[in-house]
């Protein structure tokens, strides 16, 4: 990541994932959830799938993400410690994720971040998430709040609509060379960049997606062009997460996401939900994203999303938008 002026804090060479271990853990977790998650068990039964005959990741059935809107998805019975809820719209039915342990979620989120960027304690964390701060059950706000706390920097914090204070804070941090993470929802970052033109050398931007009807939808290329020109950075980083997941993937630039050790991406054909392929299958076509999230051990680890994607020739995956007729999520994705 040679263009970011925080090289000393950035892990350029990520640890190679032990693929065999991931496969084994996924299959063990699949068999457990196939028995202990009642909804998933019914889903598998209706597909006439013999659990004992599932011996590869490609054979695992992925539960449609829409079930998070209509059911309590739990593996075994437990008293949830927290309920993450999607923002959606005033007329939509929101997804709910019943979280057994908030500490497990926060620990995993920190480890995912550290895998790509190094210790969160190296950064001052500034969060520009105005629409999400209005909700007490946002997983994104929960993660950002924890990052702010764990950074330990006295200037870390949330910024609602006070762009002047944010600008002043960034100028102070830049003046002393403090590596800084500015995490923000898309429309808020654009609003800020239009008010203040800067040349950032020690700050990197992490956009979380989402226009939520606040501004005209634009492509990721258009968004990144505005932000790079106005804020003087060469790359815009991005986070790919959602209410239904406990893990996050990260893009270090160019809209290409890499997964942490707890997560793996598959794609399924647009016309056949059981035609599934992984990055290593080298199939050069777009599909709909399926996700294995090992951190979702208390809910469901095998999710068929409504997001369009394609594996990148650079390694990793790109997000291309959403399939037709699916709900617009509060943290909506940008098109390419």
CATH fold-level assignment of the largest domain: Rossmann fold
- Which CATH C-level class of the largest domain is it? Alpha Beta
The overall number of domains is 2
Give the DSSP E fraction (strand runs of 2 or more residues). 15-25%
**Rounded to an integer, what's the Rg over CA atoms?**
20 Å
- Portion of residues within helices: 25-40%
Tally of helical runs: 9
What's the count of strands? Answer: 15
Helix-strand topology string: HHEHEEHEHHEHEHEHEEEEEEEE
Which regions contain 5 or more consecutive residues with pLDDT less than 50?
Answer: 1-17, 327-336
Report the principal-axis shape. Answer: globular
How would you classify the helix and strand content by structural class? alpha/beta
Mean pLDDT: 88
CATH architecture annotation of the largest domain: 3-Layer(aba) Sandwich
- Cα distance, first to last residue? 22 Å
Let me know the largest β-sheet. 13 strands, mixed
């Amino acid at each position: 990541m040679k263009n970011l002026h925080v090289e000393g804090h950035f892990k350029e060479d990520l640890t190679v994932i032990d693929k065999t271990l991931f496969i084994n853990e996924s299959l063990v977790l699949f068999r457990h959830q196939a028995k202990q998650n009642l909804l998933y068990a019914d889903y598998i039964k209706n597909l006439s799938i013999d659990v004992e005959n599932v011996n590869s990741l490609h054979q695992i059935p992925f539960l449609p993400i829409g079930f998070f809107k209509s059911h309590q998805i739990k593996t075994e019975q437990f008293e949830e410690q927290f309920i993450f809820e999607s923002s959606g719209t005033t007329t939509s039915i929101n997804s709910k994720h019943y979280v057994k342990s908030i500490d497990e979620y926060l620990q995993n989120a920190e480890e995912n971040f550290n895998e790509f960027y190094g210790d969160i304690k190296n950064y001052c964390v500034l969060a520009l998430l105005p629409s999400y701060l209005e909700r007490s059950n946002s997983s994104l706000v929960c993660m950002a709040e924890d990052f702010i706390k764990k950074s330990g920097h006295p200037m870390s914090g949330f910024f609602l609509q006070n762009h002047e204070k944010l600008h002043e804070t960034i100028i102070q941090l830049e003046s002393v060379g403090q590596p800084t993470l500015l995490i923000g929802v898309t429309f808020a970052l654009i609003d800020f960049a239009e008010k203040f033109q800067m040349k950032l050398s020690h700050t990197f931007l992490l956009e979380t997606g989402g226009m939520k009807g606040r501004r005209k939808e634009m492509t990721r290329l258009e968004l990144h062009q505005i932000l790079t020109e106005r804020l003087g950075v060469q790359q815009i980083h991005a986070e790919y997460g959602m209410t239904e997941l406990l893990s996050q993937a990260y893009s270090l630039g160019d809209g290409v996401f890499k997964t942490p050790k707890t997560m793996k991406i598959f794609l399924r054909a647009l016309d056949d939900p059981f035609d599934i392929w992984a990055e290593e299958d080298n199939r050069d076509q777009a599909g709909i994203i399926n996700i294995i999230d090992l951190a979702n051990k208390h809910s469901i680890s095998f999710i068929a999303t409504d997001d369009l994607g394609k594996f990148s020739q650079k390694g990793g995956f790109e997000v291309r938008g959403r399939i037709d007729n699916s709900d617009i999520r509060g943290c909506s994705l940008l098109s390419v």
